[in-house]
## 1
Amino acid sequence: MAAKIIDGKQIAAEVQGELGARIQKLSARGITPGLAVVLVGEDPASISYVTAKERACERLGIFSSDNRLPSDTSEQDLLDLIAQLNADPHIHGILVQLPLPKHIDSGRVIAAIDPAKDVDGFHPVSMGNMLLGLPGFIPCTPHGVLVMLEKSGFKTEGAEVVVLGRSNIVGKPLAALLSQKRPNGNATVTVCHTRTQNLAEHTRRADILIAAAGSPGMVTGDMIKPGAVVIDVGVNRVDAPDTNKGYRLQGDVVYEEALQVAGAITPVPGGVGPMTITMLLFNTVESAERG
Ligand code: GUN
């Protein structure tokens, strides 16, 4: 039987509906949540992410400040902008789109963001709080994956979860959250990466398989346990000369194969992507509520 498709757009719409009510309450108090988006350079994928984030803000009534800087912007100019945004009372969240150009130290830039406005959850203080189970901002993609699992009725408690990828943005925080003693946690987590041996032996054990390696089509049908829940975080641009754009988006999972084996699966696009944006809005609203 073909897998159930986990519709990220539908779940995102549901969460955004809940956020709409919270934004109205803030509005009654004279507060408009504000998100500053900072993009350095002209990377096409980054431009498209940033534009999608700004459009989502507009739809929901979140003020967004668009800061697009040329690729030769100096690190100091970027740090000065961050300082200005940290001090701006209309801004509750600051997002610096990654990756930054090579001449800029992204660690230094992220560390310059006020943790109270770190809606990406990438600041060392946010990461530390998350690891300790203390209040703070949870990175958007991992948070989106947890909400997706919860709203689709898939329990993580006691489940064997395999995470492919150990990035700071997705793999590392996801593994930490899923293994914690917390709602949507309590899973037995295995993290696989480029040095993992016998990868398929690990992935075939997974009740929930989360592919976040950034490698198009690396998970084939034979690597999936029958009936497993497969979450595909990969958004890879692969050449497609026959299309208008010249590329198409492909996940880390071979979708057609996985569909025949898995119990449930997220599509690409329309799976995790809409959830990432939604959790950014969620963090921005939370920040505005904290005041
Ligand atoms: N680049 C890819 N994903 C992300 C994200 O979630 N946040 C930021 N700031 N940059 C990214």
Note: The chain has a mean pLDDT of 97.
## 2
Amino acid sequence: MTQTTDAALGSLAKCSAYSAAEFPLEGRLAEAQVLLRDDLSAVERLLRESAAQGPVPSSDAARHLVSLGGKRVRPMALLLSSACFGPVPAASRHMAVCVELIHSATLLHDDVIDEGTERRGQASARVVWGNAVSVLGGDLLLTHALVTAQQHAPALMPALLQTLRQLVDGEIVQLRGRAELDVSEAVYWSILRDKTAALFRFATSAGAELAGASARHRGLLAEFGECIGMAFQLVDDLLDYAGDQTGKTMFADLRQGKLTLPLVLAVEQEPELLGWLQQIRAGDQSRVPQLRQRVVASGACARVVEKALGYTTRATEYLEQLPASPARALLRSVAEQLADRSR
Ligand code: FPP
Ligand code: MG
């Protein structure tokens, strides 16, 4: 069934068993913030302290990005995954900082790779300080993250290093795809799994492990994390075509000639669009609005939302196999908020 983008976004926002009217999504997220208030403020403090460390100007670039906020979805997912099994241990707070440091490092690098000019509604660090400073700011944050993990959760180092390798692999395969015309859906899914879902998976499974969860429960939370990561990136890729409040450069994927799922699906239906994509890649930016318009008109955006909804539903199915708890209910809210967010 094909829906309009608006209808599909609406159904993504309402995929909870609760009715949105009785139990508004924003209310449940606020509830997560209340439940985790002490943990989240400790994480925020540690994060900002960490980002300020190191020589200027790269620590300025790191601080700039971290101080612009963001929803801190990854730390929240890690803390709630721990809270499913009892009081949140101190190590979980440190690892919540670690995952946000890694995420921030990847954004500083990603904006260089993608030539992004805006991030979280402000000029990106590379615009303010230049590419070299921005890359080194990312390197600083990455080393802070590794030191944090080594100090507070050394047993998680192998999984963390494997996750970092996936992030890099995903970004490389995506970069390679910019020079190719036949990016298949399969390649797109592997990019998503590596560059985005892997860090969510690490966050939720680390949260469970640090709280002493059983292997089965850790596995369920790992799958949950991967599914919300997939949905998160699907919506992110969709917003490049359909959103206008992302706080990031609009149509950046298209301008870069990046083949994300809306374009992959539109091209499957209308292969002649590849000609326009080639022109954009050859430097003809005047084709960007036209191609965007054709992608939206093709109905591809609504199909992307349906896929994101599928991942969100799968995520909640994994959750339902965990013991009921307030933290489990709030993890469900985190999954559901993905339709209504910007980074
Ligand atoms: C944002 O994607 C980027 C990522 C999710 C991963 C970036 C990964 C790297 C740069 C490699 C690994 C780096 C380190 C430091 C380990 P996007 O461009 O689709 O999202 P956007 O629209 O927010 O820019
Ligand atoms: Mg980018």
Note: The pocket of magnesium ion (ligand 2) is lined by residues 110, 114, 116 (CB under 6 Å).
